[in-house]
Design a protein that fits this description.
With 425 residues, this protein is an alpha+beta fold. Helices cover 35% and strands 30% of the residues. Among the domains are: 75-87 and 248-362, Elongation Factor Tu (Ef-tu), domain 3, CATH 2.40.30; 121-225, no CATH class; 366-423, conserved putative lor/sdh protein from methanococcus maripaludis s2 fold (Beta Barrel), CATH 2.40.420. The protein has a six-stranded antiparallel sheet, with no helix packed on it.
């Protein structure tokens, strides 16, 4: 029978490999589906992130934050300072003595300075001082010989002592001011003159005293013959630094000033003077304390200021002071504009300034700064739209505008403020 070979053949089939194990088709489809779902989720998240980023960038480009702003241009100018001032000079002076403080405000009748002519003789001054000391010593001798107390003289001495201490105190502190110190000095001079007159009345027949006083009068007259005392004829500021332009430049001559002449002053050209004027010695100038002018030179072809137009002006070196100025007239010639400005302010800061670089600015109008493309018209009004839901339209008044930015003010106060986000179109 043939069963055995058949059985042996099945057992001896080691040369034949068993068929590979196979994964069921259902399980294969499950794994592939999971991988595909994961990939789809990654793609979806990536697309969503990109879309969200794009939306955020688009939103930023189409909105803006309201900020503070103001209108008004500024112009850099070369300014010539012009004051209402009077120059005092003398034909010849061997010496000058200043009796007032430089920059002080003096009143009418105040002694300002003394000029000594070429006849000045120091020996006469020395002799006068010596004579005054002799008179004082002789008065003390006469008073020591007196047998009764002089209450009138005591009162005069006490007044003089008090005024001396007040003058000393005022000169050491700045609280009283130059005007107060000058007033105290005048009081002291009157008190001393009164004391001297009283003593002469008390000893009218003393021969030695009369000889001393006669010699004093002779020396005083001699000294007065070669001394000129300058006394203020009106209130004003005193300056001992005149520059020679005082007669040529003033409020009365500024309208005739040309751009070329103003530029010459700016460049340091010497003032036009006659030979006689150049030979005279400048003593001081007396300046009106309130109000001055600035002749402003500019090459800006687009600046077209009008008479009575208000401006702000700040001078180099005085940046902490911003003056209010008003245009009087203008002249344009030779490619340069001359703007004549009047400044109604204290002259003291520019008392001795003739030239200064300055910045002239238009009166600034404050408002809110927005992009120009944020403005839109609605119901016949111009306004902006707040970036909120629902959107809110805010009517505004446009103060100034260009292609990029605009300065606006809300029609209703407080309706639009800094920091709010508005839409752009």
């Amino acid at each position: 029978m043939n069963r055995e070979p058949i059985r042996a053949g099945r057992r001896g089939g080691s040369s034949r490999r068993p068929p590979p194990r196979t994964i069921p088709a259902r399980r294969r489809r499950g794994r592939q589906s999971t991988r595909l779902s994961g990939l789809l989720l990654i793609v979806v998240f990536a697309l969503a992130g990109a879309f969200a980023w794009q939306l955020s960038q688009t939103a930023l480009r189409r909105t803006a934050i309201v900020a503070a702003g103001q209108t008004g241009r500024t112009y850099a100018v070369d300014a010539v300072i012009i004051r209402d001032e009077t120059l005092f000079d003398t034909d010849s002076a061997a010496g000058l003595k200043y009796l007032a403080d430089d920059g002080a405000m003096v009143s009418r009748g105040s002694q300002i300075a003394q000029a000594y002519s070429s006849a000045y003789n120091q020996s006469d001054v020395n002799n006068l001082n010596k004579q005054l000391e002799n008179i004082k010593a002789y008065y003390r001798t006469l008073l020591d010989q007196s047998t009764y107390p002089d209450t009138r003289l005591t009162a005069l001495d006490e007044t003089i002592d008090l005024l001396v201490s007040q003058v000393r105190k005022a000169s050491q502190t700045a609280s009283g001011g130059a005007a107060s110190l000058l007033s105290l000095k005048r009081q002291l001079e009157r008190a001393m003159t009164e004391r001297q007159s009283y003593l002469r009345q008390r000893f009218p027949n003393d021969t030695a005293l009369n000889r001393y006083t006669d010699e004093e009068k002779t020396l005083r007259k001699r000294i007065e013959s070669w001394t000129i005392t300058y006394i203020a004829d009106r209130p004003g500021l005193v300056s001992f630094y005149p520059d020679g332009y005082e007669r040529a430049l003033s409020g009365g001559t500024i309208e005739a000033l040309t751009p070329a002449a103003a530029r010459a002053v700016w460049n340091g050209a010497p003032p036009e003077q006659t030979a006689a004027e150049r030979a005279r010695s400048k003593v001081y100038k007396l300046v009106e304390p309130q109000g001055f002018y600035a002749a402003a030179l500019s090459a800006d072809k687009n600046w077209k200021p009008q008479p009575d137009e208000p401006y702000k002006i700040a001078f180099e070196g005085l940046e902490d002071i911003v003056y209010d100025a008003k245009v009087t007239t203008t002249t344009r010639s030779g490619g340069e504009l001359l703007v004549r400005l009047y400044i109604d302010a204290d002259v003291s800061p520019v008392l001795d300034t003739r030239r200064a670089k300055a910045t002239v600015g238009e009166i600034a109008t404050r408002g809110l700064l927005v992009p120009t493309d944020a403005l839109r018209a609605q119901d016949g009004q111009t306004g902006v739209v707040l970036d909120m839901e629902p959107a809110v339209f805010i009517p505004v008044t446009v103060l100034s505008s260009d292609a990029k930015e605009s300065i606006v003010r809300p029609v209703n106060s407080g309706a639009l403020v800094e920091g709010q986000r508005i839409r752009r179109f």
